[in-house]
From TrEMBL:
Enzyme class per UniProt: transferase
EC number: 2.6.1.44
Annotated Gene Ontology cellular component terms: mitochondrion
UniProt subunit comment: Homotetramer.
Protein name: alanine--glyoxylate transaminase
Predominant localisation class: mitochondrion
Amino acid sequence: MVSDVIDVVFQLNIVEGKMQYLFDESGRRYLDAFAGIVTVSVGHGHPAVVDAVVKQTKLLQHTTTIYLHHAIANYAEALAQRMPGNLKVVYFVNSGSEANDMAMMMARLYTGSFDIVALRNAYHGMSPSTMGLTAHSTWKYNVAQGFGVHHAMNPDPYRGPFGADGKLYANDLANLLESATPGRIAGFFHETIQGVGGAVELAPGYLPAAYDIVRKAGGLCIADEVQTGFGRTGSNYWGFQNQGVTPDIVTLAKGIGNGLPLAAVVTTPEIAQVLSQRLHFNTYGGNPVCSAAGHAVLEVLDKEKRQEHCATVGDHLLHRLRALQEKHDIIGNVRGRGLMLGVELVKDRQTKTPAKEETLHLFEQLKDLGILVGKGGLHGNVFRIKPPMCFSMEDADFLVDGMDHVMSKL
Ligand code: PMP
């Protein structure tokens, strides 16, 4: 059985992709405003990434990490250069779940504590241990998971009880540590804009206060940048920088490889030291082909000034979506940054009752118009707009005009 979060998209058979456009088997073109769940960063089939992959594939595919390979080392160096502070050690794995698994293990080894805190409405993966971090019933199987994981109140400015006051939500985190843990914890996981959770931006001031509390309890702060990294939020290269914090561990996946299976864990030399107690091995993690793709992505992002582009197009989109909110009562909230936006649909603006059926209907109507957006949030009532970063002003206008059209017919 597939989840209702994604089943409608499954009815499309997509056979080709070119930058921000996808094509189905009949040759019909769709504007892609979801990038395969934010997995395509610089554009479907971006020529520079394709060239890098083809070149490396012809030369050498893989020997596993038993031998050195300059492509992996060069890429790790380029990635570390883009990180702030002392975040200089990079491990490559194949998926976001694996990256978060590894971060969790490192935090436990480094601190000698076991308890981990994540946020409600978070998504951190589907492996048995990351499923425990994830806080959405949709993604939880009835198996043992999350031993030692606690979920703090989500600093959600739209639905949370404390509105946009980040410090009040941080008080709940302090209370959680006092009541549910031995007072010492291994780590705290967070996204900076919750992706699967419906582009929920954490209330301002939350992360600095939360990091203080976590560090006083001996814990590490782990930023999951799987969806928010690489300039997508426009204002900064990394999502956590939008709240002025520097994590101890950062996890990366999805857009890092523009669609190739690549993910990374970045941390400080001191923390990385804990993995030298034993061998660490991952057959495909850090293979030359995916490393070549990841390196090409970094170069394209710089060359094409994609962070600035995300800021400009994102501001325009936000502005137009807010105007649309004035016109259509069904839009309860418009939020996000850069090209990481959410439009939450409600039956009533006072009660904020999720307009789940309407969201599904509009989602289908948009698809019929040739526009693909994402659908998500705890109640499945949020349009998630996270296109490939080459999404243009004209694409933004086409998307909003399309939304206006289908909403006017509701
Ligand atoms: N973290 C976040 C924020 C994600 O959005 C996802 C995937 N949706 C993951 C982790 C897990 O990544 P993967 O599916 O590659 O395991």
